[in-house]
Every structure is written in structure tokens, then in C-alpha cells.
Amino acid sequence: MAESLTIAETAEYLGVNEFSVMTWFGEDALVQDESAPGVRFTRASVEALKEVLANRKSESRTMMRDFGGEY
């Protein structure tokens, strides 16, 4: 992975759409790489967000199981 990622690259890597990426950027979940041209995000911030999203998915599955649902 490159040192920084574009909006499209970030969306593809996280498995989401570009609107979601820009929403998270607006919420300060992604850090812009100021040294790169255009809008690019630091690899560290993309990796951190990926971990947060994975934990949310795991927590959702656990909650569904706790309520007797299949997920």
C-alpha cells in the first residue's frame, strides 16, 4: 500500500463508497496527507479506521447473537 491513498483508493480498500470516505474525513476519522498533491489520506489513519470498522462489525454480530438473531 502506498504511503497515502486517494479517496477512491481508500473507498476500495475499506470496501465502502466514496461518499462514506468523505463523510468520515469530515468527521475527522481520516487524516489528510498534507505533503501529497490533491486529497490523499495517510496510511496510518486509513488503517486505524479499518480497525474501527472491523470492531463495529464484530460488535454488531455479537449483539445479534445475544438477541437470538442469526447474523
Kindly name the structural category: mainly alpha
Q: How far apart are the termini?
A: 31 Å
Shape: elongated
Task: Assign a percent range to the helix content.
Answer: 55-70%
Mean pLDDT: 88
Given as residue ranges, the uncertain stretches (5+ residues, pLDDT < 50) are: none
Q: Output the helix-strand order.
A: EHHEH
Task: Summarize the biggest pleated sheet.
Answer: 2 strands, antiparallel
Strand order of the largest sheet: 1-2
Number of helices: 3
| Proportion of strand residues | 5-15%
Task: Summarize this structure as a short list of keywords or feature phrases.
58% helix, two-stranded antiparallel ribbon, 71 residues, 3 helices, mainly alpha, 2 strands, elongated
Could you describe the 3D structure shown?
It is a single chain. The chain has helices at residues 7-14, 18-26, 43-66, and strands at 4-6, 40-42. The chain has 71 residues and is mainly α. Strands 1-2 form a two-stranded antiparallel ribbon. α1 crosses α2 (18-26). The N and C termini lie far apart (31 Å). 17% of the residues are buried.
